[in-house]
Amino acid sequence: MPRWGMVIDLAKCTACQACTVACQTENNVPCVPPKEAARGRIISWISVLPQIEGEYPRLSMRPTPLPCVHCDNPPCIRVCPVQATAINPEGVVRQIYARCIGCRYCTNACPYTRRMFNWYKPEFPGEFTEALNPDVSVRPKGVVEKCTLCHHRLQKARDEARAAKRELAEGDYVPACVEICPAGAMYFGDLEDHNSTVAALARSRRAFKPLEELGTHPKVIYLAQGEWSGGDGQGPRT
Amino acid sequence: METDRDHAHNERDLVLLQPVIATRRPFYYLALFFLGFTSIAFFAWLWQLKQGLGVTGLNVPVYWGFYITNFVFFIGISHAGTLISAILRLCHAEWRRSITRAAEVITVLVLFFGVGSVIMDLGRPERALNVLLHPNFHSPLLWDVCSITVYLTASTIYLYLPLIPDIAILRDHGAKPAWLYRRLAIGWCASEKQKRVLNRAISVMAVLVIPIAVSVHTVVSWVFAMTVQPMWHSSIFGPYFVVGAIFSGIASLLIVMALIRRIYLLQDYLKPIHFNNLGLLLLVMALLWFYFTFAEFITTFYGSDPSHLVVFYSKLSGRYAVPFWTMVVTCFIIPVGILARRKTRTITGCVIASISVNIGMWLERFTIVVPTLSQPRLPWAKASYSPTWVEVAITIGFGATFMFLYMLFTKFFPIVSIWEVQEGREMAIPEVVERVKSYFPGEVLPSA
To answer: If contacts are CB pairs under 8 Å, which of residues 8-27 in chain A contact chain B?
Structure first.
């Protein structure tokens, strides 16, 4: 059984945000109008987080792409009152849109704030409607949605491999964000397979997991030189 | 001769039936006034249903705001009733007799608004019953569903049981609608056997209802405490919430008592001594509340986990300093200042302290829910929260509708328990004499 995981080399990331855009189009993530975006209603399954380090005047900004980290011990699943979210045997945390009651307990329990809520009926202006991905369902208003690691791509890749009478090979299945990354900063594959690129990178001395200390066991792993910490203890930055 | 005197007493208590029998014009004006707010809230809710939760001030990452604050607040107030009344009953506090009913009604009615607040907060309220279809027993929210359901059931029974003899009095006085009272009185004729069964049932319910009430607000706190989020993940939350709930519950009871005393001219039944005793209880809860709050904050401060400290300072000196310090003043300084002195522990004093406590306890719920959410561990999504007219309208509408329903109750049932007051007059003195006799050696003289 594979355990899908992602490795992101922070030294390579250029903060171009192509991953965010690719994800939006691949997964039919609704376009939020500017007015709503200003009110903090942006929906994006992978965002590039500006990690600011040091103190003025010696400041540096490290861009950090952050999708759902698909914890092996996900805090979101425990709290959902209606079992609308679950982790599958391959380690992917999924959301059942048709069952979700929209209580947003999972969004609050997630220490990574990587679950998004549909505040309105999703909108796809003009030509965006034509460009919707038929493989991914459009969510109704009032439910929570999140990164699926482009699960529909896995299903497709499995079908193709089966048709060609072969095993699923590395690179057959990659999420849209990884595929698009022009800097080649993102890697994807089976963490269980010791020969895979991600498994090798995950063993690297540069590898660390976001908010590892919370015991969530994320399957999104970063490569960087320094220590990576979430909170800076300096209070809100506005 | 003995029975004649009893009879005269009983006739006098019939003044308690007055609100049920006759309704004056101001009642209708006041009802309309409250219903006005109800309809605005209803309109706001329809608007929210049509548009989605986008019409609220909620955002990423402040996914919970006024509605969840109201939920915790209303469920907290529900502890007024049943819990206070059950404890006082079990302690044989004789002064309880004229206030238990008023307290129990608060509990039953306010629970609907607690549950209603959660429904308001749902993105898909029409799917709410998925909690029965696909229950996840790991979720603290499902524990809430269970314990609040049990609590509502138990406290409804606990309200109804002591109502039966009073309903029978109404039935015998030909109060209308006759069918309602006949049905609800379930053939009560005050026989010895009936009395014995009723008293037994009430004591059983009083014992049952206390652990249920404690579980309710413990579980409400666990909705927060069971997550790993800064300043939510705290083991003190269970007892802290229960103390806060009883605190705001007593305050609400005091306000309600002062209102019905004034409106229905019940000065003979709700006397300064009742306010004094409950005021003392409120004072004790204010001190307990402060102790818990202090313990919570000093532990966080000394632990100095950076992610906790961000939330800590946002309350003490940051964006949420105004609600936080208002809470400290209204929950502690004002009530303790008023209630600690006998001279100011009057009816007016108690009411001022109680209003202050209720404002403070709402703010406490707010400063627990929002600051943590607005400062998640990963700093990319920090945002502030301010409610929109929809949330404000629904909040005010809930309060107004609660008061309307409470008024309506007083028009159908006596708000002071008639039979318990009578029973107190007849039985309490011999009972107390017996009790005191059992404490010490020697003769106890009932009248000196």
So the answer is: none
